[in-house]
Each structure stands twice: as structure tokens, then as C-alpha cells.
Write a structure and sequence with these properties.
Order of helices and strands: EEHHEHHHHHEHEHEE
Strand content: 15-25%
Number of strands: 7
Radius of gyration: 24 Å
Number of helices: 9
Distance between the termini: 59 Å
Largest sheet: 4 strands, mixed
Oligomer: single chain
Length: 223
């Protein structure tokens, strides 16, 4: 019979067998218990793993019964990557939540030049303007084609604003629209803990381009 193992995973206690933990020999989890265990123990002698204990139950359930979790998919996926349980990783990546994120959204954003850097730039600008304010705004220029990029630059030259404070996204070669990209920007900024909304940025009358075709105001609310 396989020895019984008691675990303390981030403060959550689990009891299982050594054979369960070593079910997938190439995984990092199996390596932790191969040969002399490579883990510290807590005051009660339980092996300690410094990871979120809440999601380890889903890892353990998969090892015991091959049951792929249907809850907390994103968080369980992170733990599966950490423990390097390749069959679980593959099955989670086939789930609609992970597939949509990795194959659809992430692949689209990879085609938007400097997307991640622009998200960070937006946040830096918003924080710089937040002093003694409840809200701060960032103007974003979104262009889907090279032609729109040229028109946007022409529009920027006509706008009465600090051009360095305008964050430009695009152009890109993929099916998603400008509204899809705007949703992605909001989603990724909110994922960093910020409260944010956006609306078309309307300029003065007589402006020779419809500014809402390119420019959007993202509003950060601080309190």
C-alpha cells in the first residue's frame, strides 16, 4: 500500500497517498516527492507547499479520478502550470475559458504593436494626473489600418492637446474591431485593480475629422 502523506498547502490541510502525488512522474509535484522529499515541514510534521491551498483540492481531485475542474478554471490553470501536470494543462487549455483567452484574445493582442507597453503607459499617465483628484483621464487613439494611422496622425497635429499624453494603439491585421480592442484595454486595466470606463472623445466643432473615429477618453476613478 502507498504511504499516506499529510500536506499543508498555503494553510489548507490535505491527506492523500504518495502514489497519488506521483501519478504523473514528469511533473514538478511528483519530483517534490521522488527520493528524499524536497519540502520543508510545518510544526505538525506535514509537508509544506507555499501555494494557494484553495485550488489544490482541484489538483488532487484530478490526480485521484481524472476529473477536470469546472470551477475556478483560470486559477486552477495557474496551479497546474506550477505543478507542471501536463495532461491537466492540456485539458484545461481545451476548456472554453482558457481556449478563448489563449487562442482567441491573446493571439489577437499579440498582433497589436506594443499592446502591453501601452497599457502600462496609460496607467503611468493616469497616476501622474491623480494628485488631489478623484478622477484622471487618458486620451487613447485607436487605429485599425495603416490608412487610419496616417489620418490619426494628421488629426493629432490639429488637436489642441499634449501629443505625448495620447496613447496610440494599432494598426493590426486581425478580425476584431476597434470596439473589441477597447473592451480588451478596459479588461486588462481592470485586471490590475483599477476602476476604469471609456467613451468617445469629442473635440471642438469644425474639426475636420470625426474625432470619435479615433479618439477615446479612458476615465480612471480613484475614490
Amino acid at each position: 500500500l502507498s504511504p499516506i502523506v499529510e500536506l499543508n498547502v498555503g494553510g489548507e490541510m490535505y491527506t492523500t497517498t504518495l502514489s497519488t502525488l506521483k501519478k504523473h512522474p514528469g511533473s514538478k509535484l511528483a519530483e517534490m516527492f521522488t527520493g528524499q522529499p524536497k519540502l520543508r515541514t510545518d510544526s505538525e510534521g506535514r509537508f509544506f507547499i507555499d501555494r494557494p491551498g484553495t485550488y489544490f483540492k482541484y489538483i488532487l481531485e484530478y490526480l485521484r479520478s481524472n476529473q477536470v475542474p469546472t470551477q475556478c478554471i483560470q486559477d486552477v490553470y495557474k496551479e497546474a502550470l506550477f505543478y507542471d501536470i501536463k495532461p491537466l494543462i492540456k485539458q484545461l487549455e481545451d476548456s472554453p475559458q482558457i481556449f478563448g483567452e489563449l487562442v482567441a484574445r491573446k493571439q489577437f493582442l499579440a498582433r497589436v504593436p506594443s499592446y502591453s507597453e501601452n497599457i502600462e503607459l496609460m496607467i503611468r499617465i493616469a497616476r501622474a494626473e491623480a494628485v488631489a483628484s478623484r478622477r484622471s483621464s487618458v486620451i487613447v487613439c485607436v487605429v485599425r489600418t495603416e490608412e487610419d494611422a496616417a489620418r490619426c496622425q494628421d488629426a493629432l497635429n490639429s488637436l489642441d492637446m499634449d501629443k505625448k499624453s495620447v496613447v496610440k494603439f494599432g494598426p493590426w491585421k486581425a478580425a476584431p474591431s476597434i470596439s473589441d480592442l477597447l473592451d480588451c484595454i478596459q479588461m486588462d486595466v481592470e485586471a490590475k485593480g483599477y476602476q476604469i470606463s471609456f467613451q468617445p472623445h469629442v473635440t471642438e466643432k469644425g474639426f475636420r475629422f470625426k474625432s470619435q473615429d479615433f479618439f477615446y477618453k479612458f476615465l480612471f476613478t480613484w475614490w
